[in-house]
Amino acid sequence: MMKPFLLSTIMAACVAASAASAQVADLRSHTELRVCADPAAVPMSSEDGSGFENRIATFLGEKLNLPVTYTWFPQGSGFIRKTLRAGLCDIVIGYAQGDEMVLNTNHYYTSAYGIVTRKDSPLASVDLLEDPALKDKPIGVIAGTPPATNMARAGLAKNMKGWDLFVDRRVENPVGDMLAQVKSGELAAAVLWGPLAGPLVKADPELQFTPLVKETTGPKMFYRITMGVRLGEDSWKRELNSLIRRNQDGIDAILRDAGVPILDDYGKGLKP
């Protein structure tokens, strides 16, 4: 026979777990699609609604028959804690698969880092960081990102020019600065995340973006992108997984129209 104190402890734990579960479930709005986003992460998200993640949010809102509202906060330290976990919003449209800060949905696209050059540059055919043509050339990169490690291993560290990873993009624009310097010739090339560089390069006839899908050493260059929800919100995650699966073609169309390089699931080449 179970001892009274043990029974009461188990009952108390069950009540607490139930309350915690209810508390998580109660945070989500059922009258709005509340999105957590950076107000100046162009071309991904923007307070003026022009980013491709804004377009995906609008698309999802239409499918859910819900109006889209935003909580704006610069991405970086504290972003998830002060937006999603604070209960101010219910979804982050773009989040790397496997991050423990959120509960990830199934991925809805895969993309890669790549190299940006002028179309008329001698480096225009480069598609590997170990290419000897890159030696002794000034190349821009975001410090702390995976390609910075690969570049150092390829002997390119001496001439790398780094920009900070976490900045308030309302006042700093590292990607824009790098692309401007590639155009002017101050940089021979820049190595950037595809969803950031691809749309900006698409709008510039002098530049090109080449995905780094042939790297064989160092950190991988491709990543699967999911949507992020609060830990414990499994039913919301399942609802979004179903929504993504049923509307993948529409999401792909938005990404392609924006100029995002979409890869196959294994990062070996562009998705057909």
Could you describe the 3D structure shown?
With about 270 residues, the chain is of the alpha/beta class. It folds into 2 domains: about 25-110 and about 220-260, D-Maltodextrin-Binding Protein, domain 2, CATH 3.40.190.10; about 110-210, D-Maltodextrin-Binding Protein, domain 2. The chain contains 8 helices and 12 strands. The chain has helices spanning about 5-25, 50-65, 80, 145-155, 175-185, 195-200, 235-245, 250-260, and strands at about 35, 40, 45, 70, 90-95, 105, 110-120, 140, 160-165, 190-195, 205-210, 220-230. The strands form 2 sheets. Strands 1, 4, 5, 6, 7, 8, 9, 10, 11 and 12 form a 10-stranded mixed β-sheet that branches. β8 (about 140), α4 and β9 (about 160-165) form a beta-alpha-beta unit. The chain is elongated. This is Quinoprotein dehydrogenase-associated putative ABC transporter substrate-binding protein. InterPro entries: Quinoprotein_dehydrogenase, Solute-binding_3/MltF_N. It comes from Paracoccus litorisediminis.
